[in-house]
UniProtKB/TrEMBL annotation:
Annotated EC: 2.7.7.65
InterPro entries to which the protein is assigned, alphabetical: Diguanylate_Cyclase, GGDEF_dom, Nucleotide_cyclase, Rev_trsase/Diguanyl_cyclase
Ranges where the GGDEF domain occurs: 247-378
Transmembrane segments: 6-27, 39-56, 62-79, 91-108, 114-135, 147-164, 184-205
Name listed for the protein in its UniProt record: diguanylate cyclase
Reactions performed catalytically: 2 GTP = 3',3'-c-di-GMP + 2 diphosphate
Highest classification ranks of the organism: Bacteria, Pseudomonadati, Pseudomonadota, Betaproteobacteria, Burkholderiales
């Protein structure tokens, strides 16, 4: 098989894949999938330009071929940013992607220069994608990343080989369609690499969709906090760990006060907004490893790791202050809450026991007039009375 025929096979392959990908994945996809689709489309256009170069205008269409190939690898690099993790060096990737076709076009009259320049530029882009694929991304699967790394890595080696031949052993490598082993290897490799990259991209996209589904299954849609089921699952694991290391742990159940009034006065939408605002305040007070969920209705649950009653009291003070700050920007009735605390004094205590104790304390807080934090029969609130600045926080104990 000659090189020209293999390139036509590559074009047919990549063109059909570039149509099949959006047909299979749909148009409304994540940014990562969109970049992967863009990369394949850019490949298809690139090989179309390559075939036109001979028939129309070699310099222009060969330079366009380089431009679209560079764009293809820049898009692949961006797909990895979304699927794996943001990596440094975006400007460098784009600089190489722009300089490769520009240098090729400017130095077109020198065959050794343009072949070396273009192949080294493209190989640099492939290597950049390979590096971003192998850098740590604990949430992402290893298999599709392995396939992508090997496929692009082999192509990068063959591309470097072609660049070195064209630039430094020009007489052995007179042109791209010559039946040289490097050309045959590259022409054979292209359809294989395109197939493998497509399969790896589909696997990455499926993995991303699974992750999103899992996130949605664990999240309360209105507030974005964990839902009750996910909270219980994670809290059980955190409790088991705390037991193993004899760490203290505190659990708070929080209930918004007179929430029905907010709904009655402002409508259900105002109630929803208030729940979102409270969740936002809650998030702003959370530290690494702590868990918060919407336990149901206007009730929230927080698990504080390595925390005793003192730390829970400080958390409550921070939360009241965060709520107070948000109340200042609201025109509707101010939000307030009551909370019940349970601490894991005895390592044998279960999550259900702690939830029950916190719930009883919450009931007491409501009974005693709301707006306070209770631990068993003791009030622990460090509260900022309405209208007073944070500096005026005072300790209220009974
Ligand atoms: N807007 C909105 N309201 C909700 C949602 N979930 C529960 N509620 C409302 O929350 C209100 C809870 O009312 P109650 O249980 O009487 O409690 P409360 O008015 O906060 O009174 P206290 O707890 O005694 O201070 C009910 O009116 C529910 O309809 C929700 O997702 N959105």
């Amino acid at each position: 098989m000659d090189v020209q025929t293999l390139i036509i096979v590559t074009l047919a392959n990549v063109f059909s894949v570039s149509l099949a990908m959006p047909a299979l994945m749909g148009w409304r996809v994540s940014p990562g999938a969109r970049y992967a689709q863009g990369a394949i489309l850019a490949q298809a256009i690139a090989w179309g330009c390559f075939l036109l170069a001979r028939a129309i205008d070699d310099r222009t269409f060969s330079s366009l071929w380089m431009a679209w190939l560079s764009l293809c690898f820049a898009c692949s690099w961006h797909a990895m940013q979304h699927w794996l993790a943001p990596r440094a060096g975006s400007w460098a990737v784009w600089a190489v992607a722009v300089l490769t076709p520009v240098g090729y076009w400017a130095g077109f009259d020198s065959y050794p220069f343009r072949v070396a320049w273009a192949n080294f530029g493209l190989a640099a882009l492939m290597i950049a994608v390979c590096i971003s694929v192998v850098l740590p991304a604990p949430h992402a699967g290893r298999r599709w990343r392995g396939v992508m790394f090997v496929a692009l890595g082999v192509l990068a080696v063959v591309t470097l080989w072609r660049g070195a031949l064209g630039g430094f052993f020009t007489e052995l490598y007179p042109h791209l369609r010559a039946p040289h082993p490097a050309n045959l290897a590259a022409a054979l490799l292209h359809p294989v690499v395109i197939t493998l990259l497509t399969m790896a991209s589909l696997a990455a996209w499926r993995e991303e969709a699974e992750r999103e589904l899992q996130r949605q299954a664990q999240t309360d849609l209105l507030t974005g906090l964990l839902n009750r089921r996910a909270f219980v699952e994670r809290a059980e694991a955190a409790l088991a760990e705390a037991r193993r290391y004899c760490d203290p742990m505190a659990l708070l159940i929080i209930d918004l006060d007179r929430f029905k009034q907010i709904n009655d006065l402002g409508g259900h939408a105002a109630g929803d907004q208030a729940l979102q605002l409270f969740a936002d305040a809650l998030r702003s007070c959370m530290r690494k490893g702590e868990l918060a969920c919407r336990y149901g209705g206007e009730e929230f649950c927080v698990l504080l790791v390595r925390a005793e009653a003192g730390a829970a009291t400080s958390f409550d003070a921070r939360l009241r202050e965060a709520v107070r700050e948000r109340n200042e920007t609201r025109t509707a009735a101010p939000l307030a809450y009551s909370a019940g605390l349970a601490v894991m004094g005895d390592p044998a205590r279960t999550l259900d026991e702690m939830l029950l104790e916190a719930d009883r304390a919450l009931y007491t807080a409501k009974q005693r007039g709301r707006g306070r934090l209770m631990h068993q029969d003791q009030e622990l609130t460090v509260s900022a009375p309405a209208g007073l600045p944070a500096a005026a926080l005072r300790l209220v104990t009974k």
